[in-house]
């Protein structure tokens, strides 16, 4: 068992080793066009499904020999604050299991470098032809059966919090652990779900799922790329981060799957950590 002093020294020694590793990795100049490196990125699946297509194309054009691994990031159950709820991302970066983490908030310890990737709003998603599309009132929304994407199995999320402020509630008929599975199930049922707007715009059409502005105000959240400060000494990782943050993403309003209605409200606000 490590002594108390060993535990105390573990973090600073890990930082020293990380710096040494980066120096060794950069001993040979990084050339994107000829590099054969592999990088690991972590993100929730609703985010990776949005940024990966343009990101992979940008990498393929500039660095065809670079390989990418994607790990799904999951929130820590029972942690209400964003920086704690996604602390596994920080741990994976510290352990070098990840090179870049994409997290749905913009707060982190001082040892991390943060770069804004994109902002996201939630829409109400349902199969094309769903009865809610023709009468998207709050009453109709509350009367529908709901699907909730929850990594931890919790049934209540920020939608329920907003409904409770109005003295309303909904029936959560189904929980699933991923956004892509949610699209497949929405396509075959009368369930409705609050899903990220860019995600629905990009992937909803292939499932026959459309999105509409919510009948209540839902928060906006920010997707942020996070890397350890010391990692930026690695020219290859710095290049990858720049490439990721330079990609262009289509806005939700450009997707044919998104239906807007008058009265649909958007409100910048605190980051939703739990499920919708």
Could you please describe the fold and organization of this structure?
The N and C termini lie far apart (42 Å). Mean pLDDT is 84; it is low at 253-274. It contains ten helices and twelve strands. 39% of the residues are buried. α2 crosses α9 and α8 (179-188) crosses α9. The strands form three sheets. Strands 1, 2, 3, 4, 10 and 12 form a six-stranded mixed beta sheet that branches. The protein has a four-stranded mixed beta sheet with strand order 8-5-9-11. It has a two-stranded parallel sheet with strand order 6-7. It is globular. It folds into two domains: 4-120 and 221-251, Periplasmic binding protein-like II (D-Maltodextrin-Binding Protein, domain 2, 3-Layer(aba) Sandwich); 122-220 and 255-268, D-Maltodextrin-Binding Protein, domain 2 (3-Layer(aba) Sandwich), CATH 3.40.190. By secondary structure, the chain is α/β, with parallel strands linked by helices. The chain has helices at residues 4-25, 45-62, 82-85, 87-94, 131-134, 138-143, 158-165, 179-188, 197-207, 235-245, and strands spanning 38-43, 67-72, 100-103, 112-120, 122-127, 145-149, 171-176, 193-196, 209-212, 218-228, 258-259, 266-268. The longest helix is centred in the first third of the chain and has 22 residues, at 4-25. β1, α2 (45-62) and β2 form a beta-alpha-beta unit.
Question: Can I get a quick summary?
Answer:
With 276 residues, the protein is α/β, with parallel strands linked by helices.
Short descriptors:
D-Maltodextrin-Binding Protein, domain 2, single chain, 276 residues, six-stranded mixed sheet, alpha/beta, 2 domains, four-stranded mixed sheet, 10 helices
